[in-house]
Amino acid sequence: MNKFENVDIFASLDAIMRQNTGFFQSDFDIDKEIIAKAAASPNREDKTLLWFCRPSGTHCFKERDVFLKDTAAHNTWCFYKEQTCDCVLAYAVELTGRERGKIKGNLYELDYARQYERVKDNALAADTVKLIYEHGTREIPAGQHFNGNPDTSLGKFEHFEAVPNDPDALQFLLREEKQKRDKLTPGDFKEHTAALRAGL
Question: CA 111, CA 130: separation in Å to the nearest integer?
Answer without folding.
Answer: 32
